[in-house]
Amino acid sequence: xxxxxxxxxxxxxxxxxxxxxxxxxxxxxxxxxxxxxxxxxxxxxxxxxxxxxxxxxxxxxxxxxxxxxxxxxxxxxxxxxxxxxxxxxxxxxxxxxxxxxxxxxxxxxxxxxxxxxxxxxxxxxxxxxxxxxxxxxxxxxxxxxxxxxxxxxxxxxxxxxxxxxxxxxxxxxxxxxxxxxxxxxxxxxxxxxxxxxxxxxxxxxxxxxxxxxxxxxxxxxxxxxxxxxxxxxxxxxxxxxxxxxxxxxxxxxxxxxxxxxxxxxxxxxxxxxxxxxxxxxxxxxxxxxxxxxxxxxxxxxxxxxxxxxxxxxxxxxxxxxxxxxxxxxxxxxxxxxxxxxxxxxxxxxxxxxxxxxxxxxxxxxxxxxxxxxxxxxxxxxxxxxxxxxxxxxxxxx
Length: 397
Prior knowledge:
This protein is mainly alpha-helical. 72% of the residues lie in helices and 3% in strands. The two termini are 42 Å apart. Residues 393-397 have low confidence and may be disordered.
């Protein structure tokens, strides 16, 4: 049965390997990071959290497998439905969303009681929708009325709705959108207008939005940590201690001490815990995995026979790698504190699912690239065979 499953597994083998490695690292890191909760609330809590995380990791791998079997062209139609659902859901989140850490980013799913960040769904929806629109409008891509306004309208609406509750995620998604516009042959003049408009929207959200005090506080804390109270720099300080005490090779798995002090060692600051336990070497390995992922995805983009597949793989891969390096930058003190998880590593149920679907879509594009390459090779062999039969090429004895 396992062999039959492996035979049906298609797509880039390197990406599959990266998925498995990141999933294993995730299980080990989360198990170690939840030790504090076990100490405070009892061993049963640790087992419950690890079991829950294992279930979501396995469910995520299952989602990757299912998503990669579906022809990526179907996601063009699905993207329209996702956008229709996402925009009202973002409105709902701002007004009625569950408030955690002074932000309404989460929506509670009825019956099962789980919460999820609507921005995770919005990222997937906007990237797939942009890939579809850019492909569909290629013949009139320079036309402002027919192409530019509809495309940028969707980007701006999603950006503002996410930014009002989660500025860091909105900025990363806006950056990915700009990269897609460049790849999609939008003119430089129009992209400059987009960037200017995005800057105006950013100023509006930053100075007039409901979380303006939080955003300004985080920027001030990052720029001038020496002038802040210790409670404002607490997370960043504890993360730096984890990095400093980890050294080159780390303290060893399960030996972290800063997990006892960091508020979210199993999600936002899991990279700091990984470096503390596995050292600088462990941190470099994680970075290399994401860089290899980006490299393999770029190869898929360059080989994709259809524009939609290329744009889809590019957008999703940029989104995953930018998010990964943003999380790592925060953990090592190169950026202000945000709530961005490390893709496929941080603990988080629904974010793990949406990340897995993104990986599955990339592998679906990769599977199509492989099938086209195999078909072309087979066709070339048939042509050579036919030429040999009719005597155009002498057969080799």
